[in-house]
Amino acid sequence: MQRRSHIDQIRQQINEYLANPANASKMLYLDTETTGLGDTDQAISIAIIDEDLTVIVDTRLMTTVDINPEAQKIHKISKGDLLEYPYFVDIEHDIKRLLDGRQVGIYNADFDTRILRQSASYGMTFNFKPFCVMKEAMMLLTKNDRWLKLVDACKLTGVTLDNAHDALADAIATAKVHAVLKEMDEHIF
C-alpha cells in the first residue's frame, strides 16, 4: 500500500466513525510509539480506539528524524519499515477532528500529548481532554507517585498484554486497565 492509500484509508475510517452519532460521547484511548524520548522526537506509530475497543486508527508513520537505537530495540520499528506510511502532518487534521472535545485516556498522557505536538506541523493544536491512566493506576494500585509501567499495571489488574510496545496493543491494554481501575474506584468510594 502506498502513502496516499494509507492517508485515504485513515481519513475514511475516521469519517465513518464520526458519522455514527452513537460514537459521539465515547471515551477514546490513544497510544504512540516514537523515535525516542527527547524534545525533537516524533510518533512513528499511532493507535486510537474507543471504550468499546473499536479500532479507529492503527497506523505506522514516517518520520523526519532518526529513530534512536534504544527506542528501536524496544519497539523494533526501523525507518525502513516506515517508507510507505504517511507522515503525521499528512493525517493531523483528521486526528484533530477525531480527538477535539473528547476525553482521551492515555498511559502517560504528558508524554504522548507532547509527542503529538512535536509530530504535528508548527502551530497545530489539539483540543482534547487527556486523562492519564498511569496516574490513576499509580494512585489506586501503588498508592505512591513511583513510575508504574503499563506492563506492571496490566499484571496488577489482571489485564493481558501480549505485544507490549505496539501502539494498538498498548491502547487496548490502557482501555482495559482503565476499566478495571474505574471498577476499583467505585468500590473504594
From TrEMBL:
SMART domains: EXOIII (SM00479)
GO molecular function, one term: 3'-5' exonuclease activity
EC number(s) recorded for this UniProt protein: 3.6.4.12
Domain annotation Exonuclease: ranges: 26-187
InterPro entries: Ribonucl_H, RNaseH-like_sf, RNaseH_sf
CDD domains xref list: DEDDh
Record's keyword terms, sorted: ATP-binding, Exonuclease, Helicase, Hydrolase, Nuclease, Nucleotide-binding
Top EC class for this record: hydrolase
Pfam family, one: RNase_T
GO biological process: DNA metabolic process
Protein name (record): Probable ATP-dependent helicase dinG homolog
Source organism (scientific name): Moraxella caviae
